[in-house]
Amino acid sequence: MVKLMAANMEIESTGSRTTRGMIGQLERGYQIAQAPYGYRSSVDLSATGKVLGTRWFIHEPEAEVVRRIYALRYEGMSCPSIAETFQREGLVPPGNSRTHSQVRWRAASVHRLMSNTVYRGLFVWNGSAFSRAKARKKRKELKLLSFQRPDLRLVPDELWYACFPQGDGTPRTYAPRGGGKHLFSGLVRCGTCNSLLSIGSSQGMHCPGCYQTKRVGAGDLYMGYTSVSAARRALEWALEAIFTGEVRRELNKRLADKLHSGPAQELEQLTNRLKDIEGNIDRIQGFMLNPNIDPTIWTKRLEEFSQSKQACEHRLSQLRASSRQLTPATLQTQVQMDPLPVLHELLSGEEEVYKVRATLRRLLVSFKFVAKQSRYVSVFRLALQPGICLSELSDTAVVDSSSFEFEVTCSTNARRPVVWQVTGKSIEA
Fewest CB atoms within 10 A around its CB: which of 122, 142, 195, 370? Predict the structure, then answer.
């Protein structure tokens, strides 16, 4: 028993020393793992021939494939479609050099590549899926450490965060599968439970979750079916409302105010918030150094504050970059631009569905089916960011990211041909 205890203690001691040495290498600017797809590794030697550490450098042929993955995903292409495209083009997939068997592009391969933070110049200790799975198995909390690697950056932060929508600072990837072939797949949500609506073969839309809840007798919040045609009319009405009349004049006023005042107020707020977050991190780290307090109770809070700090720093960098690009020419371009013809052309069906859906996802903050007043009357609530749309269609910097919300009622009757009556109103924030 004594020998067994001594052996276990030696194993733990060896693990701690190894971990400390690996983190030390990362702090000195070296890498500790095999170079991922898009990179190659080289060894640094001292004057006497002693190995100092391993560095990664960009391998341009594979790096260009990685950049294409993010560009295609930004356009809305699904991971299976990206994998199919690369397989058809005969591009060498990840892992090809490490196995003798035939390797193919897969949706999971694309998804795994996109989730690697090193492509935006950040190496995260314990950030891999393997580390997370191992920690779950042992029921341990992971301590995440971030190390900046700007020389390894392949994609800008703006593209990264567009492919990984942010909420609390934690990247949430789009599912590797799914997306659907229909324009409204993944766009419209249930106003009751916020689940995505399912589109049937007859172009009807409903919430499967609320339907099952009603069917098993657990509740009666199911609103019933609406139609794709009703959702399309609601979206077209909102687009007309936001880019014409009073709403457009309000948007132009906001654009002009941004040019004169700049993002100074938001910059000040974010700077103060960043100072508060850094103060909280310092206090938690001080508590963790106290030998009378179990440090594991602070691990989760430290991770949350670290993620908030990362998101705050990203927003600050965005604001500083946009303030440099905020010029009278940019403002004039966005004020004079009429995006409605382009948007109507996108909705006409000539463009590939995944590209249109990606554009709408960036334009729409939310699109919900909120009420079914009668068999032929559906009510939708939409929130849109017109400044994002103007920026994208004019290829200029984002000047204003505020949103406008509308409630739109679409009604028809049993007569044929179908005639839609669409009314709506603006909802004040």
Answer: 195
